[in-house]
Amino acid sequence: MLLLVLDGIKPDVLRAAIREGEAPNLAALAVAGEAVWNAVSVFPSITPAATAAIATGEAPAWSGIVGHAWYDAVERRVVVYGAMTETVISTGPIKVFHNNVWRMNRDDLHAATLFESLHDHGVDGACVNFPIRRGPHTHPVRMKTIESYLKSGRYLGASVEGPKEYYMGDLFYSRQTGFSGRKGSGGLRRSVGINDEYAARIGAMLVKEKVAPFNLVYFFKGDSIAHHKGLEAQRRYVAQADGYVGRIFEAGGGVGRVLEDYAVLALSDHGHDPLLPRGRYVDLRRIRGEKVALGAKARFSNGTTVVAVPNGRSALLYLRDGVDREAVVETLVLRRGVDLAAWLDGGWGVVRRISREVRFRPGDGPRDAFGRSWELEGDPRALDLRIKDDALRYGDYPDALERLWGCLYSTRCGDVILSASPGHTFGEISGGFHTASDHGSLHASDSEVFMLASGMPAPRRITDVAPTLLRHFVAESVEKHVV
Ligand SMILES: [Zn+2]
């Protein structure tokens, strides 16, 4: 099995590249197998939450990984996994590094990863650069600059737990490959050899040597290109990424041969929404009637009533005890750029969009396309829901009820969660924001992803990836025993 995750590639962008002949390898995969262009990410549609969903099959509420940053009520501080460079700088590189590489997998991730579940079935895994990689094998830190920090012993551990084969630039590698080394390394603020070129080289090696039955290779540059330069630039990147995929196919004897030898799934973890040239930033440091703390050091002190943790086109709001949630929501949903607010109230999910409100919970009621039925109260138009007979259909917010439920249910997501209108963003924990394009919302624009699958059915949601892969391997082992 070969799982290729291309971070943040918008389905339309890949489709256009395929149409123009710029992505022949992914096109070959789409033709040979099944292509789904409107599969769905989780909410918030943010990389740590989405990659955790891919690796565990669980929504943020149950994986425990809810975004780039969240407020830990127990530790009374914001936890930042890092996104923009300035976020890393404002938080302190070692701390973000610690949170991203160590804490996220070790402490915060509550669900079993594919590497762990497959290991229980006797299937070894290989992982290149993917952020969610917890597994049954211990990997020592390989990089000298990190090793010197280890001596201080304050943040970084001497090793991490991962799959049998684990590669992440100069930081971790199960074997000497000749692809890691001094050339790529240059301190913590650089990419320390963690890049897409490296992913392609290691991916090719894994496929050529048939090292592991399950291989996960992660390409992430397409996301940051879109953030900074927009979707046209992302399309040019897709041509390059297709070349990386081509190199992996080539190493396995060509695309035809690889599709015979491997089940292959290529997907993105979330989409991208182009931002308006002006007025795109919704500054949550100002909420009428409240004293807001926002930033890596935000906490409840000196009269702070709201801790706001922006996550791109979504935002997690934590309210001090006694703060009137209704008043906060009322103010926010009227604000330009705020599409909707959602929260949990007495076992019900509640969504407010402008003046419309809908309440929902799993129970008797109309059934969504994935077979879950929902009890509804209020105005379904608040979430652009269409109900006909017993069927519930989604409009602008794909799989909205399940995705909201899979977020609101965790206290890590705060007391109110916001989703931005198309073209707008709440920015980053640093107080900065991406200029060209962003993601994180409940809206289709950044929620839809592509799935290209061969040798296995194409999942319709990123939370369906892990169960589908598990079934693939379990079915295969059953087949072998029968033979
Ligand atoms: Zn991103």
Distance N terminus to C terminus?
20 Å
Profile the largest sheet.
8 strands, mixed
Strand order of the largest sheet: 2-24-11-1-10-5-8-9
* Beta-strand content estimate: 15-25%
The CATH class assignment of the largest domain is Alpha Beta
Q: What is the molecular shape?
A: globular
Oligomer: single chain
- What's the CATH H-level homologous superfamily of the largest domain? Alkaline Phosphatase, subunit A
- Provide the structure class: alpha+beta
Domain module tally: 2
Provide mean pLDDT, rounded.
Answer: 91
Named CATH topology of the largest domain: Alkaline Phosphatase, subunit A
Work out the helix count.
16
Ligands, deduplicated: zinc ion
Gyration radius over CA: 22 Å
The amount of helix comes to 25-40%
Spans of at least 5 consecutive residues whose pLDDT stays below 50 are 184-190
At CATH level 2, the architecture of the largest domain is 3-Layer(aba) Sandwich
- Number of strand elements: 24
Question: Could you walk me through the main structural features you see in this protein, from its secondary elements to its overall organization?
Answer:
It is a single chain. The protein has 483 residues and is of the alpha+beta class. It has 2 domains: 2-63 and 92-274 and 443-482, 3-Layer(aba) Sandwich (Alkaline Phosphatase, subunit A); 292-437, no CATH class. Helices cover 33% and strands 25% of the residues. It is built from 16 helices and 24 strands. An 8-stranded mixed sheet has the order 2-24-11-1-10-5-8-9, sandwiched between helices. Strands 13-14-15-22-16-17-18-19 form an 8-stranded mixed sheet, with helices on both faces. Strand 8 (165-168) and strand 9 form a beta hairpin. Helix 5 crosses helix 6, helix 9 packs parallel to helix 11 and helix 10 (221-229) runs antiparallel to helix 11 (231-251). The longest helix has 21 residues, at 231-251. It is globular, with a radius of gyration of 22 Å. The chain starts with a strand and ends with a helix.
